[in-house]
Structure formats: structure tokens, C-alpha cells
Amino acid sequence: MTPVPPPAVELSADQARRIALRAQGFLGAPDRRAGVPGVLRHLGAVQLDTISVLARSHELIPYARLGSVGRDTVERAYWSGGRAFEYWSHAACILPVEEWPHFAFRRRGYRSRPHWSHELPDGAYARVIEQLRAEGPLTATELGGAKNGGEWWDWSASKVAVERALMYGEVVCTERRGWKRVYDLAERAIDDKLLGEDLSDAECLRRLVVLAARSLGVGTRADIADYHRLKGEEFDAVVADSGLVPVSVEGWSKPAWADPEALVSEPRGRHRTTLLSPFDSLIWERARTERVFGFTHRLEAYVPKQKRIHGYFAMPLLAGGRLQGRVDPAREGTTLIARQASLAGPKAVAPMARALVEAAAWVGCTDVRLERVEAPELREPLRAEIGRALRESYR
């Protein structure tokens, strides 16, 4: 690990929390003119996931920052006009197209160490490339079928080939259609100037470290490296030349770095009250969430039902710049159901009610039904506050 220079700046825990909130777009007035593309550029990556409860996570991310932007508007903003592409970052993510050159190190890495043991029949890879060249953007189904008929991982040769081409950068995912990836040739989908940029691994890594720090505001080595799933040693190799400012943060046991722009002014402004997707980049990394917010967050969708504590898709409540509870939502017709809610205390009742009613309206629900509340004494106040918020929303 690279020796860490003495910190140039000392931050209180509260300053670090507010810097993180501003960097993620939750403190201060949102840039509505930039809209969803602005959110994507600001965050640098928006994670995709198959789970859809209120909406899919990539829709919830701009909603949490901008409010009730239309869901169709969100999809168009991501995929129209060549603004974005899908690739492996923190996970499968939507990325601003201008960052295409900075993932060259990862594309080269995939080429040098093939990711799967899948054997491809002779000519299968070339056939997929030629079919895309001849027919234009296609899904795996249109390329000949995604599966062989077995279990979900039993991919067809054409699916293996096109996914391998995606990892290598010869093919690009330019949109999702009915949740299926739509593939096109990189030579056709990516602007020639971006396609022609030939950056070294060090240049790519330095850019991604800078972007991650900008999106986080302040973070430890692990925080910043994890944002685009870099290795610790990759962070070490470039941080000295990144321009990031070494800082110490009250209560943080490890060294940290800040985006220099984040230190120019004190974070001030209006706090957003909203429900967060479990895949929101504000709370991606569990250790960071606990350190910054004193809040333990874990997605339980992949935990056996009998072992879940907070529910299948528990969404943390952000209010007043703090995580003040969580709710496991569901939809039944035009009713949003709060299957299980937990609150940090009585002061979280009104924010939770507002967040539930706003989310309900966004997804086309006209009512909110409350089921279980972990603190029984807060159930009736929350129910009453939801009723009040619903009446106000119809005025």
C-alpha cells in the first residue's frame, strides 16, 4: 500500500456526512435543467438490477434526487441520443458514454483472462459479430436465443459469444428493451472520437478514482476503490497523481481523501426527504453507510424469507440528511403497501408518511396501506400522518 501523506484537512463527522450528501445530490437544490442525464453524469454510474417493487432501481435513483420525474422520461434520458452505455462498473451499470475510454483497462483485462469456462463452437463469435453488422442492434433472442433450454445459466452459444464481445468492447449494450439487453457494434454505437481514444491503464484508473471521489465527496481507500470496483492496489498506484486531498475525519479509523471541489465551500441547502433504493450509490457500501450514517443496511431479497429482518426490498428513509428508518414496500393495484416499517423515533413519522405518499403517487397509486410497524406505539401516529399526507396530495 502506498504511504499516506499527513492529512491536509480535518473534517468533523458531520461535515463528512454533509459533503457525502451533497456529492450524491441530496443536499442543495437539484439541477432540474440537467435532469436525468445530469444525475447520471453527477453520479458517474447508476446500478441496474432485475428486482422491481415500486420500480426498477435505475428509475428510483433519479426519482430520489429529482422527485416525480416520469418513468418513461427516465428511460428515454438514459438510452436515447447515445448518452449512455451499459458495462461492468460497481456492478452492471448505466454509464455516461463519455466515460467509454476510461473502461479500456477493464476491457483489456477481460481479454487477457477469459471470464468463463464456456466453450464456444468454432465460428460462433464471428457469426454474432457479422449478424450485428448485417442486421443492426439485436437482443440475444434475436441473435438466435439466449438459452439452451436448461437452467438459467445454460446460455446458448450466441448468448455466450455476444456477452464475451460485450466484455471485450467489440459490442456495446445501448439500451434495455423489456429488460433484455440490446447489443450493437461498438464501431457503430460509440462516437469515433471516443472509440479512438487509446488510454493506458494508469490513465483509466486515475480518471475513475477521481470520478469516484467526486461522486462520494470524501471516502476511504476502500470507499473510493469500491465505487467502480477497482482493486486497492489499483487505487494506490494512481492516488498520488489524482489531485485528491488527504483528510482525516472524526471517528474514521482509516485515512481518507476528498474531492478538492468538495472542500471549497460548506455543504448547505435543502435536504431531500425520500425513500432510497437498496442499490442507491449513497448506500452501496455497507461499512461506509455504517460509518457515515450510523445505519446498518443490508439487502435481504437474496436472504431466505424466514431469516429476513426488515423485508424483501427494504428501502431506507432519508430525511434531514440522516437515515431515519426503512420500509419494505409492495404494490397491490392502486395501493402502495408498507408491509413493514421501522422508524428511528417519533420525529421520523412525518417524513416517512410524506415519502410513502410521494412514492405512491409517482408509481400511480392513490392509496397507502400500513401493515406492520416495528415500534407499536408509532403505528397509529404513522397511519394518521399518512392519511393527512394523502388528503393534502389531493387538494
Structure overview:
With 395 residues, the protein is an alpha+beta fold. It is built from 15 helices and 14 strands. It has helices at residues 13-23, 35-43, 57-66, 71-79, 104-112, 124-135, 157-168, 186-189, 192-196, 201-216, 221-227, 232-238, 286-293, 349-362, 379-393; strands at 9-11, 46-47, 84-88, 92-96, 171-177, 180-185, 218-220, 245-249, 256-258, 274-275, 315-319, 322-332, 335-343, 367-373. The chain has a five-stranded mixed β-sheet, covered by helices on one side. Helix 6 crosses helix 7 (157-168), helix 10 crosses helix 12 (232-238) and helix 14 (349-362) packs across helix 15. The radius of gyration is 22 Å and the shape is globular. It starts with 8 loop residues before the first strand and ends with a helix. The model has no long low-confidence stretch (mean pLDDT 93).
Count of DSSP H/I helices: 15
Compute the separation of the termini in Å. Answer: 59 Å
> Overall pLDDT, averaged?
93
The total strand number stands at: 14
Share of helix, binned: 25-40%
Order of helices and strands: EHHEHHEEHHHEEHHHEHHEEEHEEEHEH
Structural class by helix and strand composition: alpha+beta
The coarse overall form would be: globular
Radius of gyration: 22 Å
Low confidence ranges: none
Described by strand count, sense and barrel closure, the largest sheet is: 5 strands, mixed
Q: What is the secondary structure topology, with strand pairs?
A:
Blueprint: E1 9-11, H1 13-23, H2 35-43, E2 46-47, H3 57-66, H4 71-79, E3 84-88, E4 92-96, H5 104-112, H6 124-135, H7 157-168, E5 171-177, E6 180-185, H8 186-189, H9 192-196, H10 201-216, E7 218-220, H11 221-227, H12 232-238, E8 245-249, E9 256-258, E10 274-275, H13 286-293, E11 315-319, E12 322-332, E13 335-343, H14 349-362, E14 367-373, H15 379-393
Parallel strand pairs: 1-8, 13-14
Antiparallel strand pairs: 2-4, 3-4, 5-6, 7-9, 8-9, 10-11, 11-12, 12-13
Helix pairs in contact: 2-3, 2-4, 6-7, 10-11, 10-12, 11-12, 14-15
